[in-house]
Amino acid sequence: MSTTVETVSAAARTAPPAVIVAIDGPSGTGKSSTSKAVAAQLGLSYLDTGAQYRAITWWMLNNGVDVGDPAEIATAAAKPVIVSGTDPTAPTITVDGEDASGPIRTQEVTSKVSAVSAVPEVRTLITGLQRSIAAGAERGIVVEGRDIGTTVLPDADIKIFLTASPEARAARRSGEVKGSDLAATKEALIKRDAADSGRKTSPLAKAADAVEVDTTELTLAQVIECVVTLVGEKQAAK
Ligand SMILES: Nc1ncnc2c1ncn2[C@@H]1O[C@H](COP(=O)(O)OP(=O)(O)O)[C@@H](O)[C@H]1O
Ligand SMILES: Nc1ccn([C@@H]2O[C@H](COP(=O)(O)OP(=O)(O)O)[C@@H](O)[C@H]2O)c(=O)n1
Q1: Looking at this predicted complex, what is its ipTM?
Q2: Where do the domains of the chain lie?
Q3: Which residue's CA is the closest to the ligand 2 atom numbered 5?
Q4: Structural class in CATH, domain 20-233
Q5: Ligand 1 atom showing the smallest separation from residue 176 Cα
Q6: Using one digit for the tens of pLDDT, what is the confidence trace for 2-50?
Q7: What residues are in contact with ligand 1 under a 6 Å CB criterion?
Q8: Which of 124, 135, 149, 221 is most buried, taking the most CB atoms under 10 A from its CB?
Q9: Which ligand is nearest to the CA of 163?
Q10: pLDDT of 120-139, one tens digit each?
Q11: Which of 103-140 are b and which e, b meaning 16 or more Cβ less than 10 Å from the residue's Cβ?
């Protein structure tokens, strides 16, 4: 008995303190790739909050909700059950028990998600879900999105705001889809950024205490290294 207690307390002494990392920024700045890699490297959980907004949008499109009508969106918001798996090496997302990881990435969902995510009732529900996931992450978590540092987790240990030029972001996004049109990708991306930054409820914004990293001229490996270093410094100071 005493051996078990001693082993547990020894482990508690050597394990780094749980750390909450908030990574925000517009589309194509590298949030997902960076967050997954940082979480995997540091043994933390990972949450893609954009996937949750995409999932609720997908459900609405499949269930006859008029996504041009905020009142209809608000009424339907609590109906789908969204579950996020937080292993950074294999993140998952289900809606009512169904794997949604593929269908949430379609062009149709991408073009409608900003309208759905702007509705306050949607944000209240999803924000609650995000906070409970973060609170349950024993070793800590990297949470990426648009309003994590400002609204969802304002007490996060470290906040990063990633940026990059619209040209670099469009080129990265375009590179993911074979045969995609670079100019059209850039236009759609700028339109979505404007909607996300301009909405009333928790818009895309840099928290006052966030560290801004411009990734335009950096490789993904350099961005990951930069964030891992910042998190390590925070953990050491805790
Ligand atoms: N610093 C970088 N340099 C070049 N390509 C990058 C960089 N960061 C991310 N990428 C690539 O850009 C694309 C978009 O990255 P992603 O992490 O999905 O961005 P976000 O989550 O901010 O939308 C991915 O294909 C990714 O591999
Ligand atoms: N914390 C968040 C995350 C995403 N979102 C919304 O969800 C959309 C999709 O987010 P995403 O992270 O999957 O977008 P990409 O940049 O990866 O394409 C955004 O355009 C926002 O409308 C949000 O409102 N708040």
Answers
A1: 0.98
A2: 20-233
A3: 50
A4: alpha beta
A5: 25
A6: 444 455 555 555 666 789 999 999 999 999 999 999 999 999 999 999 9
A7: 25, 27-33, 172-173, 176, 215, 218-220, 223
A8: 149
A9: 1
A10: 999 999 999 999 999 999 99
A11: bbeeeebbebbbbbbbbebbbebbbebbeebbeebeeb
